[in-house]
Structure formats: C-alpha cells, structure tokens
Design a protein that fits this description.
Mean pLDDT: 89
Low-confidence stretches: none
Order of helices and strands: HHEHEEHEEHH
CATH architecture of one domain: 2-Layer Sandwich
Oligomer: single chain
Bound molecules: iron/sulfur cluster
Number of strands: 5
Structural class: alpha+beta
Radius of gyration: 27 Å
Length: 185
Amino acid sequence: MQALTNRAHSVERKPMTWVERLYLWNIFKGMMITFSHIFRRKATISYPEQKREFSPVFRGLQILNRDEEGRERCTACGLCAVACPAEAITMEAAERLPGEEHLYREEKYAAKYEINMLRCIFCGLCEEACPKDAVYLSETFAPANYQRKGFIYGKPDLLIPHPIENPDEYKKALGNRAHQQHTSN
Ligand code: SF4
Ligand code: SF4
C-alpha cells in the first residue's frame, strides 16, 4: 500500500529480555519523569487564594455603565441586542419622566435589561455596537450557579455601582476601563 507520508515506522517485535519482562525498568523510567516535574515551575496555582492576572483583551461579564453623574447611559436603542449573535440580550424601553433626569441620561431608558449568560459567548459585539458607551465587558466572570435562572442577569446584577454614592465599588467595577471612560457621546 502506498504511504501518504514518510512518517510511518514499522514496529519492532523482537522478544523482550528478562529485564524488560520484570517491567522494573519501565516503572523506573516513569518515576524519573514524575520526579523531574517536582523541581519544575508549577503550572497550577492555589485558586482562589491566588489569582492570575487576566489578559488585557479578556472579555468577561457585561456591565451596564453610568455617566460621571451616576445616570444610566443606556437609551434602550436595542442595537446591542441586534448585534448579539447569540440572541442573549432582551430589554424593555421606557420614557424618562420629568424629575428623572438625574437617573437616566437620555429621554428613553431600559426599564428592563437582561442578558442570558448561558447563551452569551463573550464576543464583545454588544459593546462595539453600543453608541452610548453603556455596556462593556468587564474583567470578571459570571460565577457558577446550580440553576439556569441564576444565569439570567437583570439590570440590578449588571448595573455598575453609583460613581458618587459608591466610588470605591464603581472604580473596582470599572477596572482598567477607568482610562477609557468617555465623558460624552
Ligand atoms: S458578548 Fe456577544 S454573545 Fe454576549 S451578549 Fe454581547 S453580543 Fe451577545
Ligand atoms: S446598551 Fe447601548 S446599544 Fe444596548 S440598548 Fe443600551 S444604549 Fe443601546
């Protein structure tokens, strides 16, 4: 039969010596490989006490952003939902009422905003589609859960802490985004 590559080797089938039949040599060789790894740098870490730094391009859990005055940026335009290839985003729009200008930046806002984390593939297209800098993928990830409904993230789960009322938590949630934060759109 014609060989497709030149990598084929014929197997040697010579009878084993009495040393080989004891298998001690092979066990010794295996143990040497194990011992040689003891002195190498460990590939694992003791999570959660130790944590690795994320890659600068890591895309994690979505955050709904506020502006510098703490107003919700999202105007419920639906562009993120249209851009989402996994159809993971759903929302309901509402009109801003007089007196709510300190809560919502635009005349329309998302009364309901949900992301199904079981569908999300963390592609970041929602972030790219958003004209208001209202949604971005953070440096954290959705924690494990035993129930499917625990992976449906609503507005209270996604909304970033208030920058004036809770500045420390806000900065933490913003992470490396702090220097990228747009002041207007
Ligand atoms: S990251 Fe991608 S899959 Fe996830 S919600 Fe955004 S657009 Fe959809
Ligand atoms: S997050 Fe951005 S793209 Fe999505 S509805 Fe809100 S403003 Fe529109």
